[in-house]
From TrEMBL:
Compositionally biased tracts (Low complexity): 589-602
Skewed-composition ranges (Polar residues): 100-111
Protein name (database record): Protein PLASTID MOVEMENT IMPAIRED 2
Biased composition (Basic residues): 579-588
Coiled-coil segments: 285-333, 499-526
Basic and acidic residues composition-biased segments: 26-35, 264-283, 381-393, 529-542
Species of origin: Ananas comosus var. bracteatus (red pineapple)
């Protein structure tokens, strides 16, 4: 029994050592946690919040990237339109130069013909041409401003791309830290598994020892029962012997009485002196003496057996006392082992619950890390694509700049040529004025001559050139005028269709912006709700962990005072609330900055309304009048 008790105590001590090791590995140095007011309890919720913020940031980066791509596409479309408009203006300027040359030739012919009405019309059209040239210059300056705004928007998009890259680097660093923490959690998980296996082994050993002790106790009880039955049989046998002894005592007393009678009879016989009586009495006395001796021997043997029986009864009483004490000790050991097994079972249940929570947290962290790694991979791919797109855009911008420089050079050369043409037109205008004066004098003379001739005759004579002009040029001029009117109407309809298309596009963009803002507001509300729910759950988890730790410390005998525990719990709650407020503020600030980024007005290059050049019309009219 003493060997069983020592083995039980050794098993209990090993299990306690394993449990203390397990609790130290799980709790992660409780003394340090109490000194620092449980900073490790806030790691898991803070990391969960950081993961949530990282997800929101990644979503916002994707949204900003999509908006930047849309703005970049719009800028490329606007740049292409500006290129086409610049080319169109260059072509129109070339046409204007050619028309100016034709105008010079026509001015020379008009100078020869000397028609004053046409000269006035040409002056008016000349002023319109100059006005159109000024409008063209303004349009070119506007296109330059639009190009500058497009370049600024491109620089802004590049800055946003750089910011997204920096954020991606920060998130990659946070993912690496999370991976390290997951590795530490895996190590703790392995330690927990080892402790659990050790505890299971100790539990099985304790159960085996308990079963062996129970078998030994049952054997001891069976042996005690057998000995009690034997003692009961001995007691019955002794009772029978006592009854026999009482019977023999009564027989001895009867024999003694008979001996007394015999002796009395002998005395009487002696007195009477009869010899027959002496012989009979002697024979009877001898037989009685023999019976008495035999009875005395039997009585002595019975007394010896009674003494032996009393000694055996004393031994049986001592053995019964020892057996009762042993049974009480075994019962106490059984109760103690049961309580210890219950304590171990409660510890194992707590360890299993912690292990399950750790496994669930590990699975969640693995899922989050896999999502973040895929998101980071996607961001890396997108950044590489954006780098390539940036290189392409840089090449395109360089080409556009070179083309713009070429267009500026061409425009400057065209302006110089236009100035030379204007000077030539001014000289031609001066010469035309002189010719017009001369023509006016000649026409006045001709009119006077015609008037005098009309007074003399009923017919009017005109020159051959006037007759040819009036007879041949009227129908083609009418056809050209009709064509010009149809072309101008088609041009106006095309402009109206373009304006409608631009309005529809602007309405569609506004609708998309409103939907994006509504979706962003909804996402922000959902993120705030989830953050509030997570904070509540984190506070509940902190409280449950704190209560469990206090219970464990109370069981191990290292509990704090009640006032200190209450103060520590209040300080932890205040710290959790302060941290939750700071997190919510950070989330609100980040959300508002993201909203400002998302709601920042995208750069748009307004499409200038194309001015219909009257220069071409004027020159075509002049060409048809030839």
């Amino acid at each position: 029994m003493e060997g069983i008790e020592s083995e039980n105590q050794e098993g209990i001590g090993s299990v306690r050592a394993a449990i203390s090791l397990y609790s130290e590995r799980i709790n992660g140095r409780k003394q340090e946690k109490l000194k620092t007011k449980a900073p490790l309890q806030e790691n898991s919720p803070s990391k969960a919040g950081e993961l949530h913020v990282a997800k929101i940031g990644i979503d916002r980066l994707n949204e900003t990237r999509v908006s930047a791509e849309k703005e970049k596409a719009c800028a490329e479309a606007e740049l292409s339109t500006t290129k086409s408009m610049a080319k169109e203006l260059a072509r129109k300027i070339e046409e204007a130069n050619s028309e100016a040359r034709a105008q010079n030739s026509e001015l020379n012919s008009v100078r020869k013909q000397g028609r004053s009405a046409k000269s006035l019309e040409s002056d008016r059209q000349y002023e319109e041409v100059i006005r159109e040239l000024e409008d063209v210059k303004k349009e070119v300056s506007r296109l330059k401003l639009d190009l500058a705004s497009a370049l600024e928007a491109k620089a802004k998009a590049e800055k946003e791309i750089e910011a997204s890259r920096s954020k991606a680097m920060v998130y990659s660093k946070s993912v690496e830290e999370l991976k390290e923490e997951i590795e530490e959690a895996n190590e703790e998980h392995v330690l927990v598994e080892i402790a659990r296996i050790e505890a299971d082994r100790e539990r099985r050993e304790i159960e085996a020892k308990r079963e062996a002790e129970a078998d030994q106790f049952a054997k001891n009880l069976e042996a005690a029962r057998k000995r009690i039955e034997d003692l009961k049989r001995e007691i019955n046998r002794t009772k029978e012997l006592e009854s026999k002894l009482a019977v023999t005592k009564s027989d001895v007393e009867v024999l003694q009485n008979e001996m007394e009678l015999v002796r009395a009879m002998e005395r009487k016989d002696k007195e009477n002196g009869s010899q027959k009586g002496d012989l009979e009495g002697r024979s009877m006395l001898r037989s009685a003496q023999a019976e008495l001796d035999a009875a005395k021997k039997e009585l002595g043997a019975i007394k010896e057996e009674g003494f032996q029986f009393m000694a055996s009864m004393d031994q049986i009483r001592k053995e019964m006392l020892r057996i009762s004490k042993e049974t009480e000790r075994l019962k106490k050991l059984g109760k103690k082992a049961d309580s210890h097994v219950q304590y171990l079972n409660s510890k194992l249940l707590k360890a299993k619950s912690k292990l399950e929570s750790a496994a669930a947290a590990e699975e969640r962290t693995k899922g989050i890390v896999s999502n973040l790694s895929s998101a980071l991979q996607q961001l890396k791919n997108e950044t590489e694509g954006e780098k390539q797109e940036k290189e392409m855009i840089d090449n395109e911008t360089q080409n556009i700049r070179s083309e713009n420089e070429k267009a500026d050079m061409e425009i400057s050369s065209i302006e110089e040529r236009l100035q030379a043409a204007v000077k030539e037109l001014e000289a031609a205008k001066a010469s035309e004025l002189v010719a017009l004066k001369k023509l006016k004098i000649a026409t006045e003379k001709a009119m006077k001559a015609r008037a005098s001739a009309v007074l003399k005759s009923s017919t009017l004579t005109i020159s051959k050139s006037e007759y040819d002009y009036l007879s041949k040029r009227a129908a083609p001029a009418q056809a050209v005028a009709d064509k010009k009117v149809a072309a101008s109407r088609a041009w106006i309809e095309a402009l109206k269709a373009g304006e409608k298309e631009m309005l529809m596009r602007a309405e569609h963009l506004e609708k998309q912006m409103r939907e994006a803002r509504a979706m962003e507001k909804q996402k922000l509300l959902e993120a705030e709700r989830t953050s509030i729910d997570k904070r509540k759950m984190e506070e509940q988890v902190h409280e449950t962990n704190w209560t469990e730790e206090n219970e464990e410390e109370g069981e191990e005998g290292s509990t704090l005072p009640v006032g200190a525990a209450v103060a520590l719990r209040k300080s932890l709650r205040n710290e959790n609330r302060n941290r939750g407020g700071r997190r919510s503020k950070m989330r609100r600030v980040s959300a508002s900055s993201a909203a400002r980024i998302a709601q920042s007005p995208s750069f748009t290059i307004k499409k200038k309304r194309k001015v219909m050049p009257n220069l071409v019309k004027f020159l075509r009219d002049r060409r048809n009048e030839k």
